[in-house]
Amino acid sequence: xxxxxxxxxxxxxxxxxxxxxxxxxxxxxxxxxxxxxxxxxxxxxxxxxxxxxxxxxxxxxxxxxxxxxxxxxxxxxxxxxxxxxxxxxxxxxxxxxxxxxxxxxxxxxxxxxxxxxxxxxxxxxxxxxxxxxxxxxxxxxxxxxxxxxxxxxxxxxxxxxxxxxxxxxxxxxxxxxxxxxxxxxxxxxxxxxxxxxxxxxxxxxxxxxxxxxxxxxxxxxxxxxxxxxxxxxxxxxxxxxxxxxxxxxxxxxxxxxxxxxxxxxxxxxxxxxxxxxxxxxxxxxxxxxxxxxxxxxxxxxxxxxxxxxxxxxxxxxxxxxxxxxxxxxxxxxxxxxxxxxxxxxxxxxxxxxxxxxxx
Length: 359
What we know:
Number of helices: 14
Helix content: over 70%
Strand content: under 5%
Largest sheet: none
Order of helices and strands: HHHHHHHHHHHHHH
Radius of gyration: 23 Å
Structural class: mainly alpha
């Protein structure tokens, strides 16, 4: 013990309820100011936590078995009440494991079980309505109502328990809502290839919906990030899960549209997309955004190239992306500091994570 507190100590104090996020951020900012720098985080750190020990895994396994049994029983018996009871049980367990024990992985399991229970209950209630109406007309209103009600239930959970993973489930629900809306505005033409479905030039509702969702999730993630620039508490953790969804959604549409252009123009557009994703990830200081986006891009392109029988290009693609991510990971802090110093002031720049203002 050297008698010095670290950012991890402050995060633990916030998680335990001894300090508020605002108090912890103020303490850390003051410590950074006394040290003559704004770098309040460890230089190679982006906080992320799924579990804190095997005790959480042990409890989570028990909860998964319990919730799975309740949902399976509900599917066998039928009716609205069984999945609703499963959701209520998850809420009751969260009062102990989430609110009192502050266990990370069990909280994720419980909010997932709650979401499944609510979704099943609402599906049973609204499902009968879909049988008696035209699914292509009034049925869309039922689907939209279903999504809004599930989203409202998840928002209620987030307000009550403040579990960051809830934002991931909210994002998935929002994605479904966007797909319903955009597909009704721009009907999807079935029979075209998967790569064409997400091509903006085809006018596909899925392509437009994915792009809208990606931008919306990115904006929401940045809103959370800017409320917690020092990455101490639940705000930035909530933003993390939204960035995980935003990156693939944006890359899916933009990269496939560029790829389908073909020729030199398509390759150049694809390279520009890669660089743009990397620059955006550096600016917002989210390695998770870059990893999710580029990883998804690599999987899509490797699948497309393999389907064309071009094994050599697949290997070359993996080598290039691997070298790129390795380089970015090794020099992330230096690259971000240089980029942020080069960029002029823009709205919200001072609310992003701090960086070294002098070389």
